[in-house]
Amino acid sequence: MGGVFGRHDSHKRWIYGTKIENKIVEAMQKRESKGSSVKSFNTIILKFPKIDESFRKCKAIFEQFDEDSNGVIDREELKNSFSKLEISITEEDLNDLFEACDVNEHMGMKFSEFIVLLCLVYLLTDDPAALHIKSQIGLPDLEATFETLVDAFVFLDKNKDGYVSKSEMIEAVNESRERSSERIAIKRFGSQV
Length: 193
Fold this sequence. Notes:
Layout: H1 2-5, H2 19-32, H3 41-46, H4 48-65, H5 75-84, H6 91-101, H7 111-124, H8 131-137, H9 143-156, H10 166-189
Helix pairs in contact: 2-9, 6-7, 7-9
């Protein structure tokens, strides 16, 4: 799931595995061509409280998908939920999406993994005809949050390959520290720094 979570710097040697991953990378690269409103890592950090608040709203959606109320959405529950919402998806794409979101590989999506699913649905249904799908799942209310996450990804993906590598993440954090240190120095000592 490199398109969302990143790979090590050696990801170039890795061959894209699934159609869904290819779609994710393609969607991210398309989105990256529009640029990012995020200008620093600190901007992302400052948005955490609002993002956290929005994710709490996802709990109700999660509970609708979790038919047996065991705290985990299994493959069959995901399939049933998509069917109820009239979201047409091939068995192969459903399996790929499920595996991509089942980060811990315990054959079920916990709440945090479900958030990844919602973000992917948001990202992959980026055409006007998909508005019905987004509203069925409740994504319009969460659109600003997912847009912030996509925007943060675009900012972090420095080489615009659809992945965020460890080195890109470190670069963003270090760049943010340098800017913060410079601003603090300017505030303390004036413009003579």
